[in-house]
Amino acid sequence: MKKFLYLSIVSAFFISCGNDDAPVESPNVAPTTPTLVSPVNNKLCTNNSVSFQWNAATDSNNDAIRYQIQVAKNIGFSNIVMTTESSAIYQNFTLEKATAYYWRVKSTDNKNLSSTYSTVFSFYTSGDGVVNYLPFSPDLVSPELNSVLITKTAKLQWTAKDVDAQDKLVFDVYFGTTNPPTEKAGVNQEAISLDVNIVASKEYYWKVVVKDDKGGETIGQTWKFRTN
């Protein structure tokens, strides 16, 4: 009986020590989202050989980080013209002249867990003899993309920029339940918002066409939201 008790106590001691000393593995966490540095947002680049730079991301697990940069001709990134991955926080690309570009960066650790993409920055490459640059594509403010509204009206809001700072911008707003929207809810308006009436249980689509006072115009991407 004494021998049995002795063995039981010794076994319990080793089991207890084994549990206390078991390593606790930290869950993998995605690295932080990079912040863009240059070219700065809404810049006119005097050279079509463009140097891109961003701030380094951090990783709470101290994993090695690589970065993916995407450069596109549209703000929706369906027309990507340059993309690459590396551990560097800079890249150099030679691009077309007199063209609007949009760029973003994300970070990925060595376990393939990625951050979200950074804020999108836009810029123009200068062109020989160009006297007017088209406005940039408008940026969505509200309602958030794919959001659900329970009100009877919606305030459509956006922002728009032009590297020709002296240009006056006006907007045509297309809004409706068809994709893409074809009916104009606002024409040549200067305001960057528009109130529209909505009904329940519908999906709505809208887009903004930005026009400058020299005849240039840029068609924005289609945004959508739905009602409850």
TrEMBL record:
Residue ranges that the Swiss-Prot or TrEMBL entry lists as coiled coil: none
Asked if Nucleotide-binding is a keyword of the record, the answer is no
This protein's name: Fibronectin type-III domain-containing protein
Report the domain of life of the source organism: Bacteria
Signal sequence, start to end: 1-22
What are the UniProt keywords, alphabetically? Answer: Signal
Record domain Fibronectin type-III: where: 30-128
Q: Name one Pfam family in it.
A: Ig_Rha78A_N
Q: Which organism is it from?
A: Flavobacterium xylosi
Q: Which InterPro entries match?
A: FN3_dom, FN3_sf, Ig-like_fold
